[in-house]
Amino acid sequence: MREGQPLARSPHIVAAGVDDRAGQGRIILAAELPEAELLKEHADSLTEEREVYWDKESGSVKARRRTLFGALALKETTHERPTAEETEEVLLSVISAEGLGVLPWDKGTIQLRQRMAFMHAVRTDWPDVSDEALLHSLQEWLRPYIQGMRNLRDLQRLPVSKALEGMLDWSGRQTLDKEAPTHITVPSGSRVPLDYGNPGTPVLAVRLQEMFGQVDTPRIGLGKVPVLLHLLSPARRPMQVTSDLASFWRNTYFEVKKDLKGRYPKHYWPDDPLQAEPTSRTRPAK
Questions:
Q1: Would the pLDDT of 120 be above 80?
Q2: Are residues 174 and 131 in the same domain?
Q3: C-beta of residue 246 within 8 angstroms of C-beta of residue 254
Q4: Which domain holds residue 76?
Q5: pLDDT at position 3, please?
Q6: Residues 174 and 193 placed together within one structural domain of the fold
Q7: Are 143 and 190 within one domain?
Q8: Per residue, what are the HEC states of the chain?
Q9: Which of 9, 44, 64, 88 is most buried by a 10 A CB count?
């Protein structure tokens, strides 16, 4: 019905004549149907529906109640407050649909997940923290931590690291700290962080001089996995990448030593790295 016609702004009409032959249909004969009359005469055809849903515009969970006449919504109210259980279900469905990226992943939480993924690669009975597995088990590991939350802002306060740790018992957390440590103490005494970005090959980037005296490559994951050593120059540039430190000392160190001695003549480059004192300084303290 064209704008400006008497019935154009009527909320409900009965259309007795319709021309739908053209590209745009037209109502050529109609009468206004007052809502009170509709509710009275067709009470048996009316249904009440309550729906809890995700409102994308506000980024929150809302509830609405509607009076329906077939597919036609006659009334809608949105002042109702969803129950806590209803809200949790909707939030979980949003996370399932949108993916884990809607959760807050800080650096420490990412590392925790990577360490758990490393342990799963070492032991198949360890919890699987892949995207697919976590999305499939949201009810178990995440639901207890979204209680009281109602919108995207609330989700940004979600303690994801605690939720992940909740997948482990006390013994599991002890095993994680021992077999997938955040840091390794090297011969110089420095605590060097491990990078678990590739769960199958954790990386330890450490200055070469700090590894003097270390015969073999450090191993983690129940002793099954040697770390990948990125041996660095004093300027922290990679000079050698190896998972076999003993072989490096035997076969490669002396060539690397010549290069480093030329670039960093004031630094300590001993002839026997296995008997030398490790240092994080230019030279060992006297």
A1: yes
A2: yes
A3: no
A4: 44-82
A5: 55
A6: no
A7: no
A8: CCCCCCCCCCCCEEEEEEECCCCCCEEEEEEECCHHHHHHHCHHHEEEEEEEEEECCCCEEEEEEEEEECCEEEEEECCCCCCHHHHHHHHHHHHHHHCHHHCCCCHHHHHHHHHHHHHHHHCCCCCCCCHHHHHHCHHHHCHHHCCCCCEHHHHCCCCHHHHHHCCCCHHHHHHHHHHCCCEEECCCCCEEEEECCCCCCCEEEEEHHHHCCCCCCCEECCCCEECEEEEECCCCCEEEEECCHHHHHHHCHHHHHHHHHHHCCCCCCCCCCCCCCCCCCCCCCC
A9: 88
Q: At what angle do helices 107-122 and 170-179 cross, to 10 degrees?
A: 90
pLDDT digits (tens, 9 = 90+) for 208-240: 999 999 999 999 999 999 999 999 999 999 999
Tokens of 186: 């090297």
Which residue in this structure is represented by tokens 């009281």?
148
The two tokens of residue 111 are: 């590392």
In a domain, 233, yes or no: yes
Q: How far apart are the first and last CA of the chain?
A: 96
Q: Which of 55, 188, 38, 161 is nearest to 104 (CA)?
A: 161
Angle (CA) 174 176 177, round 5°: 65
Residue 97 has pLDDT above 70, yes or no: yes
- Asked whether the predicted pLDDT for residue 10 surpasses 50, the reply is yes
In whole numbers, what is the pLDDT of the chain averaged over residues?
A: 90
Same domain, 74 and 98: no
Closest listed residue to residue 187, CA positions, set 126, 278, 106: 278
57/125 same-domain check: no
Claim to verify: residue 105 and residue 124 sit in the same structural domain: yes
Q: Is residue 19 in some structural domain?
A: yes
pLDDT digits (tens, 9 = 90+) for 174-218: 999 999 999 999 999 999 999 999 988 999 999 999 999 999 999
